[in-house]
Design brief:
This protein is mainly alpha-helical and 302 residues long. Helices cover 76% and strands 0% of the residues. It contains 14 helices and no strands.
Length: 302
């Protein structure tokens, strides 16, 4: 692993592409959920993300238990909970914001499991960003429901847990990890959809699906999953968690803007305040070396 906390220009571009893909992905999820129940939507996603690719892409070189854990946490649990949270009343823009609490979960788990030691600057940045999440929690009601918020917070914890499995798996190709992780998630989610959605709802949803939902599925599967998670897996394996994870704080900015443009989601003052605190925390995390050099320069001049 590269121990440098500063990303190369190429990898920084990969990060920005991933952020844009995942930020606009919440629109696709919202549109798909207007016609498909969340567990069925996830089942279709996992099936198309895994098949037929598993027949051509070798399984990652890792203990089977690690691959199963990755698939369950990073796909089955994360998206089952996220899709349910959006269906239960959390707007796409807010969902993209709340999911970023995974930054704190990821850093905490990395400290616990891999002995990574973030400095006081990263800790301060995380605490500042947490104020933004607190603002969202303080506005339960309207387009923030308690159950939607709780489900999405649980999804962010699942995402952070999946990041820990990513670091333990030696995948020759990041795409192989994504494909095989989806294969693991597929039977779990198919069984969940069968028992919760029921055959009647499943048949009705599939038989009446529109082209809008089909396009949403295509985006979620081939753009968000294959490209997004392929790039993300490469970055997580290349750099320390504390160097990569903070970039995901840009996702809600893309999520809010895209939701405002395409879904006419209202950008209220408190949403802007929440985004502001998250962005300030991101600045602390991403530009710590330059800020510390600037502070040191001021001290020397004084």
């Amino acid at each position: 692993m590269n121990t440098n906390l500063n990303l190369s220009t190429k990898h920084l571009l990969f990060v920005l592409i991933t952020v844009i893909i995942w930020g606009t992905n919440f629109i696709a999820i919202y549109l798909g959920l207007k016609e498909l129940p969340p567990f069925l939507f996830c089942t279709i996603r996992f099936a198309l993300s895994a098949l037929p690719f598993v027949f051509f892409i070798p399984r990652p070189k890792a203990p089977l238990l690690f691959i199963i854990g990755f698939g369950i946490f990073n796909f089955a649990l994360q998206f089952g909970l996220l899709f349910s949270g959006i269906q239960m009343g959390l707007s796409p823009g807010l969902a993209s914001l709340v999911m970023q609490i995974q930054v704190f979960f990821s850093m905490g788990l990395a400290i616990l499991l891999f002995k990574e030691t973030p400095n006081w600057f990263k800790i301060s940045g995380s605490l500042i960003s947490f104020v933004g999440i607190g603002i969202v929690a303080a506005h339960v009601g309207g387009d923030v429901t308690t159950i939607g918020l709780l489900l999405t917070l649980m999804a962010s914890l699942a995402w952070a847990s999946g990041n820990m499995f990513t670091k333990k798996i030696n995948a020759v190709s990041p795409l192989s990890l994504v494909v095989w992780g989806n294969l693991v998630a597929f039977p779990f989610m198919a069984a969940t959809s069968y028992y919760i959605d029921g055959t009647d709802l499943i048949i009705h949803s599939i038989s009446t699906i529109s082209w809008t939902a089909v396009l949403a599925i295509i985006y979620v599967v081939y753009i968000s999953t294959h490209i997004g998670y392929g790039l993300w897996g490469l970055l997580i394996k290349t750099y320390p968690t504390v160097a990569v994870v903070p970039f995901t704080l840009l996702i809600p900015i893309v999520g809010f803007l895209s939701s405002a443009i395409y879904l006419k989601e209202e950008l209220t003052d408190w949403k802007l305040y929440a985004s502001f605190f998250i962005m300030i925390g991101l600045v602390f995390n991403l530009f710590e070396s330059k800020i510390l050099k600037f502070i040191a320069l001021i001290k020397r001049n004084n």
